[in-house]
Amino acid sequence: MRDATLAGADGEAAAAPFAYGPWLFSHNGAVGGWPGSLASLAEGLPPDELLSMEARCDSALVWALVLHRLRRGDEAGQALADTVLDVAGAAPASRLNLLMTDGVTISATAWGDTLWYLVEPGRRTVVASEPYDDDPLWREVPDRTLLAASRTDVLLTPLKEPPA
Question: Which of 42, 48, 64, 131 registers the highest number of CB atoms within 10 A of its CB?
Fold first, then answer.
């Protein structure tokens, strides 16, 4: 269980990674004002999706919001970016570093917490909250940024602030 999960949350079901099909999802951070701050966003989910959630914590609801977008056909990066902007608009004090992979690509957001990446040319790309060694190739992702990574390439796209 992550340290931002409130006591009494649904045990292992509340711990990352959340999974569906090829997707694995993790949230590093916390939703400010949880749970009331996201009530209006939860209302936008189909009842069967909301009622089938295995956990009742902030990360599980954020995952449900992302997954709803994926099921509608959104691409991974767009689903993460739009979810972060919606959650940040509803709960401005949130820290929303989201990470998702299908085993081939990685999509992640830096929103309120550190995020780093390392590209080892021709070998792999690593995305982490912090560097785990002193390799000079580590690069910090700027706050409020969407990262899209493959084995050999990383694309960083600034995220716009949600409307006030």
Answer: 64
